[in-house]
Amino acid sequence: MNKIKIAMIFGTRPETIKIFPIISEIKKYPHLIDYRIIVSGQHREMLDQMLEIFQINPDYDLDIMEQGQSLSDITKNSLLGIGKILKKERPSIVL
User: Fold this and answer.
1) Model pTM?
2) For the UDP-N-acetylglucosamine 2-epimerase domain, which residue ranges apply (predicted)?
């Protein structure tokens, strides 16, 4: 039986809090679900704090934040990074 492959993408403290219960549930089914965790690093300090508290180890960290970049730069860098990962991983579901 082929596993379902899920990519979970988040980057802020509130997103981490919301997705943690999903990650916890998915971990119960390693024989059915293969998952990848992708973080944007959008709010680095708060994100790292939540990753440590919830013991989440990202498979990919886009680390997109740079000093003085515009919102369009952040969006562009996020989409380019996510696009490369999704092309490589080819998930069935993206959260």
Assistant:
1) 0.89
2) 32-95
